[in-house]
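G., before I forget:
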Amino acid sequence: MQTPLIEFRNVSKRFDDHTVLDNVNLEIFENQITTIIGKSGTGKSVLLKHIIGLLSPDEGTILFRGKPVHEMKKAEWDVYRSRISYMFQNNALFDSLTVFENIALPLRQTTNLRNREIMRKVMMRAQQTELFDAIRKYPAELSGGMQKRVALARALVTDPAIVLFDEPTTGQDPIRKNTILSMIAHYRRQFGFTAILISHDIPDVFFISDRIILLWDGTVAFQGSYEESTQLNHPMIDEFMRSLEGFQDKLTGLLSKQVFKTRYAMTFHRGHIDATVSAILFTVGVDLHAESYDAPLFETLRILGENINDYFAPLGGFSARHGRSQILTVLPRVPIADAGGLLDSFAELLQERALPEIEEMVQRSVGDDRCFTIFIKAGIMEGSSSEDLDALMSRAGSNQRTVAVYNCERGGRAA
Amino acid sequence: MMLRSGRMKTEKYLQLFFSAIGKATLELIRNLGAMALFFAEAVCKIFRPKQFREIIHQVFYIGAKSTNIVLLIGLFTGMVLGLQLYYTLIKFGSEGVLGSVVSLALIRELGPVLTAIMITARAGSSMAAEIGILRISEQIDALYTMRIDPVRYIVSPRIAASIISFPLLTAFFDLIGILGGYLTGVLLLGVNEGAYFYRVQAYVEMKDITGGFIKSLVFAMLVSTICCFQGFFTNKRSDGYGARSVSLSTTAAVVLSCVMILVSDYVVTSLLM
């Protein structure tokens, strides 16, 4: 069994008479994205502050790789701390320092890097977080969303092994929200760090999370994968999940993953035990050179989601975003031949309506000087309602073909 | 029965009274102890790496930017001293010693004290407010999470800069004050110019100058420690939260600094005499 990277054992924390954490037991594993969810005021930020040592538990133990952190010697504690970075809920930027100085601060104060190297690292992070133009500005001159990105850049500039994100996407628009979540997922893959997030952005955050911890009234009500959480019969989980049912995926406007699954189950379990179902899996991709520019990808995903909803919803189809850049559309009781015809018509519609919109968006958000390809693929597969949805999705994925391409190399026009 | 009840009430009030005094005394001792430890920690961290730039920055803010106001106050203090002392000394026919009285008053007492009070008003209040805002907006916590020691990064440079700036500004104050006395005494009221400067030279001894600088060093340590301490622990105040706590900390920092300047002035003068 894998040893947890961080483990809470019977941790309690009180402020005066108010118990914020009550006998908390949880595990956080290496190289995973763990998301802590729960209502406001249930002690999520307090829990995070225990991990970095800003707060100490009144009772219980916090272990790092099986070793209690309070038993660590100074040198060990320094090493532990050097691996962790923290992004505050209210950003905690230094108002008297520019964006550049804010991002450079941990490098200047805790390393012996030369100025040139510091500048290179800071500029790289600024570019990745779309802050290049604001690098000489002060935090007060930036919007709330930009300040959030400065805090994110500062948290990542030291290449930490564990990053604690306290509501990193609060106050962001859906595009940037997904860009930030995607960046967290992307960097996690690239650098192999462990991310611990606090977020209210459900369901967006589920797309990138490996594990979910539900904190309820100061105790851990659930910890496990998203799939496990939906199957768990627990009154607190039920209440929480019920509260999510109204949520849409804010980026695409499609159903949330949870509502999608509920609707799928309800559609096929009303006397049609083994009905035919056609599934279309759409994937949005960008070419290699554009990997650091997530905004065009998510904008395309938004445009695609709107078009899918407009086209397939009146036909009885329903869709949800799966993963970072995929949308699954289910057409109940539609044979594959008919579904194929619908997809062809939809592809024509995409060429006609969506591509000009994508072109305009790319020119607006990226500019004319950068050039790359955005493609939309679709795969169609027939199955039965008794078949596992993930298996059906996987089969549809293996059957994908390109249905629309935007390529600015062809004279800056959509192709 | 009524007598016993009245006695019990008196006992209760006395108990409450002494309990309040005891509590306040303990709180005072605790705060003084905490402040002393805070000062010791900050002083030790002055000599850590990466401090030079921050100290220079603070010397500019606390010292260089206070120069104009200190010079202005010094000039007028010297002028008013020249004026007042001339009309007092002339009653005894001793207006010739004006130079020595003005310079000794400035170098021994008024220079260090008024300079310290002016710096408290200008830089001390902003120290407390700035650090208080850093605290309530979690910027001090952010430093901790970045493994930057907040005492080293925020407090130590300010204390070091105060220790450098206070004596220098006191010297400026003394010089311009003596010049102010010259303006009123010599140019305005007709005291002999040679006598004025001769008396300054003859009566001001090195121990007077050293004493003035010792005082300014003591004030520097007191003012910077009190102002930084009040700002740094703004979040621990029980009488206010958020912006209110910052304003209370700033007020407390200025008032306490001014009181401590005068109290310590008496103590240091007693020791130096």
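Chain B has a mean pLDDT of 91. Residues 211 and 273 of chain B are 9 Å apart (CA to CA).

More on Monday.
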